[in-house]
Amino acid sequence: MKTDVLIVGTGCSGLYAALNLPKDKDITIITKSDLESNDSFLAQGGICMLKDEEDFDSYYEDTMRAGHYENDKKSVEIMIWSSQEVITDLMSYGTNFHRHADGSLDFSREGGHSDFRILFHRDITGREITSHLLDEAKKRSNIKLMEYTTLLDIIEKDNECYGAVIAHSDGRVEAVEADYVFLATGGVGGLYKHSTNFRHLTGDGLAIALKHGIKLKDANYIQIHPTTFYNKYAKDRSFLISESVRGEGAKLYDKNMNRFTDELQPRDLLTVAIHEQMEKDGTEFVWEDLRTLPGDELHKHFPNIVKHCLEMGYDPDKECIPVVPAQHYFMGGIWVNHQSGTSMKRLYAVGETACNGVHGKNRLASNSLLESLVFAKRAAAEIKLNAMPIDKDPELFENLDLSIYEDVDGLEREYHKVVQAEISRLNEITEHPVVAEYVDID
């Protein structure tokens, strides 16, 4: 199989990269599950946008403070200054954001933000954005989308990527020759017992990077979301109670229904406060009160959260709901430069699997969608600008032994263990590790 560009992942970063690549490029996008089973579709809260130049210093400081000032300053600047351009692109694809009666954009606020700068579409902003990107990709004759197709490895020589090895839904293993490969494989939630992520997102891109000596950065920087709906019997991903709920006024209570912390502090600090209160109370959750939201804001802004609460037997209009922290986001990943290039030639990484340093040690709420889109577009732009002849190596593919990839399940288990081991190794040598319970791979 041959293609100009192979993109692994159908989240917002992979799709947006494809849409910004030249239309004369043959682009193949593969995904491990169906086209919509990625965390971009799950994002509830919103996407940040620089409202005007006067907001820059405040937005920059909020991002840096949330990241404990370990952020890459240039990456933060690029993300913020690029935000208006990205939002304009999204609206051109049909994305709708909530507006005031006069038609002006309505901005929300979340924990860690000192101002209202977050655009949203009810409580399904990620779905609203990513579904329109997917619809646009489906219209492009140069883009081919392949579901239930798994990346098994990359094909490289002398630190230059020539393609990949993939497994089709019927178990058939195939080599793919590509001028460029984009890793948009998402986060690592599938490695953890409690996570808001889809279970099939297990850090495959990281495992392959480790295998080939590709540089990683901050691979143990794991963000825990402080408020997910507590379900003692949950076997699937945890249901997220959006940061925006607290941004609009929801409160947190201990077992005696007393408020115990500032609900709008950065996620890592709030998570610590909740865990400390749970330990003090001897409970497995704390209570979140959504009745404190003004007027009909709860039903207007968060209809899907209300629906889930009712399905779980709680009426948020009349009672508090139980919430508990869960693994949520991956700030670390495959090291990339400001154009999303990895340490290997012709290999890019975008979205949650990449680490350009923008988030530092802890991600500021609603920066994830924006960061993914901004740096995906920059990768596509670099390929546009550097249209140079691509090296081919037919012998590399002729001599490739695909039989070593036949045990797909065994290879995936091996990859899971490799990533878990690397995160654990880094936790042991990090001053302030973020530790969460792994799922049992075996």
Mean pLDDT, to the nearest integer, reads 94
Head-to-tail CA distance between termini: 33 Å
Largest sheet entry: 7 strands, mixed
Order of helices and strands: EHEEHHEHEEEEHEEHEHEHHEEEEHHH
Strand content: 15-25%
The coarse overall form would be: globular
Low-confidence stretches at least 5 residues in length (pLDDT < 50)? none
Backbone structural class: alpha/beta
Number of helices: 12
Helicity range:
25-40%
What is the CA-based Rg, rounded?
21 Å
Count every beta strand, where a strand is a DSSP E run of 2 or more residues: 16
Structure commentary:
With 442 residues, the chain is an alpha/beta fold. The protein is 32% helix and 18% strand. It contains twelve helices and 16 strands. Strands 1, 2, 5, 6, 7, 8 and 15 form a seven-stranded mixed β-sheet that branches. The radius of gyration is 21 Å and the shape is globular. It starts with a strand and ends in a 13-residue tail after the last helix. The mean pLDDT is 94.
